[in-house]
Amino acid sequence: MRRAYTPWPLDKPDPGLRGANRVWTPVLKVRVLGPSHRVSPSIPAVVDSGAPYCLFRAEVANYLKLPLKNGPEGGIGGIIGGVREPVYFHQANIVIEDNWTISVWAGFMRKLSVTAILGRAGFFDKFQVMFDHSQSPPEFEVTKIDLIS
Predict the structure, then answer these.
(1) Does residue 98 form part of some domain?
(2) Is 83 exposed, middle or buried (0-12, 13-18, 19+ CB in 10 A)?
(3) 13 burial via Cβ count (<10 Å: 0-12, 13-18, 19+)
(4) Would you say the pTM of this structure is higher than 0.85?
(5) Among the four 15, 118, 120, 148, which has the fewest Cβ within 10 Å?
């Protein structure tokens, strides 16, 4: 499946992007299946090879009636050292673009800047992703990996 990046607006022009007021981001639509067979609405998930695992905002856990703090607690920070935010892990099934359903050990947290992130553990270990910045807008291609046990 090949997709164009999504333009995400910025609060103010970014000097690192030569004054651009948007950033092109690889995004897939996902739905999260809860333990009580409740299904989230379709939400945008950033495909992020720098993220260690799949993450969702706490509101997604609340919608699914998933007891957020009952999961094991970890911490996550950004590329700048300092404050780490709590993240609570739960088993979840994710439907990606209505094409694939995968089971992941996902983190849920209150201060996530986007609705969802598809990271290395859970997503990149199940899919091959190719980023193509030779296009305008950039594109990315996602292919399911057939794992042999």
Answers:
(1) yes
(2) exposed
(3) exposed
(4) yes
(5) 148
What phi, psi does 5 have (nearest 5°)? -60, 160
How much of the chain, in percent, has pLDDT values that exceed 90?
81
Number of domains in the chain: 1
Q: Per the domain annotation, does 13 fall within a domain?
A: no
Range of the domain at 130: 2-8+22-144
Q: What is the pLDDT of residues 84-97, one digit of tens each?
A: 889 999 999 999 99
The pLDDT tens digits of the residues spanning 21-61 come to 999 999 999 999 988 788 999 999 999 999 999 999 999 99
Q: Does a structural domain hold residue 17?
A: no
Whether cis (ω within 30° of 0) applies to the bond prior to 9 is: no
CB 39 within 8 A of CB 29: no
